[in-house]
Amino acid sequence: LRGEVARREQLLKEAGRRVQGSAFNSVTEYENARTSAAGAAAALPPLPTLFVVADEFTLMLADHPEYADLFDYVARKGRSFRIHI
Q: Which residues are annotated as catalytic?
């Protein structure tokens, strides 16, 4: 999950530099450029929303408390990249 957040963050930076000279500020800005299909933006891949579902979340955290920081990180930072828990 951390890797996916980092991948999406990097994608917005690199794609923004190619298309407009600076990083995209949001996934919405990225998608607007992508769907305009003009020039370099036409080659941008879609960035679908990712939903993370954890059945028995409380039990998982009881068995693996080390995941608490990961889920906190994804809940805070991931939402701006369309990753939701």
A: 56
